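User: Good morning. I'm curious how magnesium ion would be positioned relative to this chain. Could you predict the structure with it bound?
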Amino acid sequence: DIENLSDLKKLAVLGLGNGGVVYKVSHQKTNSIYALKLLRLDHNAAFISHQAAAREAEILKRVDSQFIVKCHAVFYTLEGELCFVMEHMEGGSLFDVLRVRGKFSEDVISGIALRVLKGLQYLHGMQIIHGDIKPSNLLINAKGEVKIADFGVSRIVGGTPAPCEACMGTGTCAYMSPERVDSERWSGGADYDYYDYGFAGDVWSLGVVILECSVGHYPLIGMGEKPDLVALICAICFGETLEIPETASPEFRSFVKTCLEKDWRKRGSLDKLLAHPFVNRTTSSNVII
Ligand code: ADP
Ligand code: MG
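Assistant: Good morning! Here's the predicted structure, ligand included:
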């Protein structure tokens, strides 16, 4: 077990996020490599609430799935930092890989979609809404397999709600569904709250990611357009047509449209999407290599 920061040697910085730094570390005793996410709870510059950090820790301790980045240990340092020792994902994030590779073939995208769907099926089965599915939170291992990471804004149904954190924290709502960016208009009324539509919100976000993997840039607004908040919200809530590449297969088209249905009550369920032909292709290779 890894419960001591002094046993971990920092080798490199893997990522910087809101309130967190992620290091590549080696565990001296076992000579193994891990990723260490450090959350500074009390520093003003990058403040994240104790409540949010505790929730992330709680979720990471509960989940155990081949489709979710594994967390081996959670502990506090004497300085009050919260540490997550996680499986190191050698391939980095889908965000970084997309920037390098530009776009992916449908077979690769099908593999990504299938793994994210299975990860979401696992999470939703545990009543966990991820809430922040986007390329930088999907990590790739040495085998080229994608896993879901970053439970920084996730919710366990029954816990404390504060749905717009993802937007405030990261300054973007690019991957959020219509009912999240404008719940008054799109949620369907007072009968519904985040714990009703949050699950469908994860499906929408997957749809945006999948389309981005195919077109090679954020897909809901044009390449040259300035993605300010108003333009984004308009595109998410009122954008009528999807820019799907002409060469895309009918299955891809149908899959993306099923995810990006604006009315969350009509949006495809995980069961429906898991049975969709787009993710049930037999291909020689659907991993990112
Ligand atoms: P934040 O809440 O700050 O967004 P993340 O958990 O998303 O934190 O991590 C930020 C970035 O650090 C990721 O986008 C990724 O590039 C890198 N990273 C995080 N965890 C790992 C890991 N287990 N293996 C490799 N890289 C990681
Ligand atoms: Mg993140």
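The pocket of magnesium ion (ligand 2) is lined by residues 17, 136-137, 150 (CB under 6 Å). Residues 16 and 22 are 6 Å apart (CA to CA).
Let me know if you'd like a different ligand tried.
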